[in-house]
Every structure is written in structure tokens, then in C-alpha cells.
Amino acid sequence: MDAPRQSNLHLYIKECRRNDVTDVVRVCEPTYLGGELTSAGIRLHDMAYDDGTSPPEAVLDRWLGLVEERFFPPSGPDGEKATIAVHCVAGLGRAPVLVAIALMEFEGMDAVEAVVMIRGQRRGAINEKQLRYLEGYKCRRKLGGSGCGCVIL
After folding, report:
1. Is 51 a catalytic residue?
2. Which residue among the candidates 46, 51, 139, 150 is catalytic per the annotation?
3. Annotated catalytic residue, options 16, 28, 88, 148
4. Widest pairwise Cα distance in the chain
5. Which of 17, 41, 66, 113 is surrounded by the most beta carbons within 10 Å?
6. How much is the pTM?
7. What is the pLDDT of residues 86-131, one digit of tens each?
8. Is the bond preceding 55 in cis, omega lying within 30 degrees of 0?
9. Contact assessment for residue 66 and residue 7, using Cβ atoms and an 8 Å cutoff
């Protein structure tokens, strides 16, 4: 699918419903209004950062906090099964970096394992600079390896 924008947001909402998405994380500048997502019962979290770079500390803190809140305990804060969708514009940089960090933090993967898994679904994801960042990334959480049921679509 193309990057989400106002004209195709209804298709994203349909896909989100099909995959039981409870939260959407937008890591790029807004290309659509969030009201339709909210009306569909999906929470929108804006965590934009510059394309081709690594996430700043504030974004990392919010991202890891959201993942931990939604998946630990596994049924989420309200007892619902949680699914987080994260997107950027092309789906090759910012969003995959956050997914890689979640896999490293909560699934206990190393950077290479996480990138290989992501590239299996998103060929060309994560540039060399981002890969170096991930290889040097130090996990902050002590939950690694306990599993959050991460799935890459």
C-alpha cells in the first residue's frame, strides 16, 4: 500500500481492523487527520523524527513506554488484546528502526536478527547509518526474551 494520507486512510483503517490494531504510531509528519482513526477506536500517537536518522531519546522513551504498556501484561491496560501499527512515509527507515528496537528490547533479539526479520517483510528497510545505530544500541528494559508477540506485516 502507499503511505497513509487523507485520501486512502479508509483503506488503512480497514487493514487496521483486519489486524486488530489498537494503536497507530506515526513517525513522520502528518499526511492525514487523526479523527477518522479515533472514530474507528484506534489511538494515534505522533512520534515524528527526521528521515534517515535514529530516534531521539524522547521518541525512544515514548515508544518503549507504549510497547511495554500495551504488551505487559499481554492483554494491555484495559484487558484488551493490543496490536500496535507503526508507519513512516516509505516504510523503510523510521518505522522499521522502532520495530527493530522493540524486537531487541522485548524479544531479546540482537540487531542483526531483528533487521533480518524486518527485511524479510520490508525489503530494503533500514539504511547503513540506522543499522550501525542498532548494532550499538544498548537495551534499557529487563524484559528481553519474555516475548511480546511481535508480528511484522
Report:
1. yes
2. 51
3. 88
4. 42
5. 66
6. 0.82
7. 887 665 568 888 989 988 988 888 888 887 878 877 787 778 888 7
8. no
9. no
